């Protein structure tokens, strides 16, 4: 309460000082016309040049950003459709860059050119059909082209035929982690529902469903190179987003429904580690880590391990406190290695049976004959 009162007093003192300065200003009328609150030529010229300075700042900062952070872009796409996404992105960026450079210059130049000057009157005209036509038709053509190209690319990415030779993988999101389920030999994912979640069945797979018998649940995602993978996404709790940046793939995971995304991985993890841009990035990260390790060692703490590249599945929806660390490693293998890896994984139903097997019968304890105490003998001895 006291602090509120002090705060109110301070505010009132502030208002009083402000009012006093206003009164002081009013008493100065006619003394110095340069002090007037109406902008004069000098004020307008200063603002005009500031406009120029600002457009210069935009240009210089753009160039600086490209030079300083340009190498942080994703680099080689690791999926078949990735090149199309990159193309669309590059075309959009170049167009935006071009239009932005020109329009920002014009905007700032005209504010400077037509800045207020004493005695200057603004020219008024209602409209100019030629100008209107130019700045309507050009954006219409450019935007329609971009939208059509985008739609075409999107359809290409999202379309797949049911009977195609594909692998079905379920991605299950929850606060804060991922799990994946492979459809097994029948290539059909068994039914699942949040109500079936129990014990090791963390995905809520319906273990009575025949299609679920060969399903395999894993915590590290492996994908075969060159084969189409259809992801079925589910969420246990809130909205998440499965984001696989190197594959240029992202799809929301929505509680209560199944969403889908499909792509063909084209670069194995081993191949990507040899990619020049990735090598450059890994070196850069390891230099930072080495520097940090020296600091840590000086404080008697454990040094950081060197970083090696791995594909990642990340969450791209702010879903809670540990959202930043909601990730799963992705390994792209050759088809043979993938098959070998998957074959070694146990099915969920076998894991379930093992975990829920009835406890073995208790073994009866057999007491050796010699140790059995003959109470009558003991009693007889005590009486003696
Ligand atoms: Cu999330």
From TrEMBL:
EC category: translocase
Catalytic activity: 4 Fe(II)-[cytochrome c] + O2 + 8 H(+)(in) = 4 Fe(III)-[cytochrome c] + 2 H2O + 4 H(+)(out)
Subcellular location: Cell membrane; Membrane
Record-linked SUPFAM superfamilies: Cupredoxins (SSF49503), Cytochrome c oxidase subunit II-like, transmembrane region (SSF81464)
PROSITE patterns (alphabetical): COX2_CUA, COX2_TM
Protein's membrane topology: Multi-pass membrane protein
Cofactor(s) it depends on: Cu cation
Cofactor note as given: Binds a copper A center.
Domain named Cytochrome oxidase subunit II copper A binding: residues: 164-344
EC number: 7.1.1.9
Chief place of localization: membrane
Transmembrane annotation, as ranges: 6-24, 45-67, 87-112, 133-152
Residue span(s) of domain Cytochrome oxidase subunit II transmembrane region profile: 66-161
Domain of life per record: Bacteria
Signal peptide: none
Coiled coil: none
Keywords annotated in UniProt: Copper, Electron transport, Membrane, Metal-binding, Respiratory chain, Translocase, Transmembrane, Transmembrane helix, Transport
Keyword hit for Transport: yes
InterPro entries: CcO_II, CcO_II-like_C, Cupredoxin, Cyt_c_oxidase_su2_TM_dom, Cyt_c_oxidase_su2_TM_sf
Known role: Subunits I and II form the functional core of the enzyme complex. Electrons originating in cytochrome c are transferred via heme a and Cu(A) to the binuclear center formed by heme a3 and Cu(B).
Protein family per UniProt: Belongs to the cytochrome c oxidase subunit 2 family.
Protein name: Cytochrome c oxidase subunit 2
Species per Swiss-Prot/TrEMBL record: Flavobacterium jumunjinense
């Amino acid at each position: 309460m006291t602090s509120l009162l002090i705060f109110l007093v301070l505010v009132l003192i502030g208002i009083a000082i402000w009012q006093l300065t206003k009164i002081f200003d009013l008493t100065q009328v006619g003394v110095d016309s340069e002090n007037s609150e109406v902008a004069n030529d000098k004020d307008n010229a200063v603002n005009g040049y500031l406009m120029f300075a600002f457009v210069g700042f935009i240009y210089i900062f753009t160039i600086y950003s490209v030079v300083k952070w340009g190498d942080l872009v994703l680099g080689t796409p690791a999926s078949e459709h990735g090149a199309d996404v990159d193309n669309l992105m590059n075309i959009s960026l170049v167009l935006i860059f071009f239009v932005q450079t020109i329009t920002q210059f014009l905007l700032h130049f005209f504010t400077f050119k037509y800045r207020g000057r004493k005695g200057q009157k603004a020219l008024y005209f209602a409209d100019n059909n030629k100008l209107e036509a130019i700045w309507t038709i050009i954006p219409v053509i450019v935007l329609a082209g971009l939208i059509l190209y985008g739609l075409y690319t999107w359809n290409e990415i999202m379309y797949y035929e049911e009977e195609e030779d594909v692998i079905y993988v379920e991605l299950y999101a929850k606060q804060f982690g991922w799990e994946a389920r492979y459809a097994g030999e029948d290539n059909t994912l068994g039914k699942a529902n949040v109500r079936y979640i129990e014990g090791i069945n963390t995905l809520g797979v319906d273990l009575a469903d025949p299609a679920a018998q060969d399903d395999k649940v894993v915590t590290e995602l492996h994908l075969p190179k060159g084969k189409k993978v259809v992801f079925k996404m589910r969420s246990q709790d809130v909205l998440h987003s499965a984001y696989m940046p190197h594959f240029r793939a992202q799809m929301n995971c929505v509680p209560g429904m199944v969403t889908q995304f499909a792509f063909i991985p084209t670069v194995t993890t081993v191949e990507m580690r040899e990619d020049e841009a990735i090598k450059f990035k890994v070196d850069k990260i390891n230099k930072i880590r080495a520097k940090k390790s020296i600091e840590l060692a000086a404080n008697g703490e454990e040094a950081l391990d060197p970083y090696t590249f791995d594909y990642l599945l990340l969450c791209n929806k702010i879903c809670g406190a540990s959202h930043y660390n909601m990730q799963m490693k992705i390994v792209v293998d050759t088809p043979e290695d993938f098959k070998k890896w998957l074959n070694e994984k146990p099915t969920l139903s076998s894991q379930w049976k093992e975990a829920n097997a009835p406890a073995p019968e208790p073994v009866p304890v057999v007491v050796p004959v010699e140790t059995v105490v003959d109470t009558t003998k003991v009693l007889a001895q005590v009486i003696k």
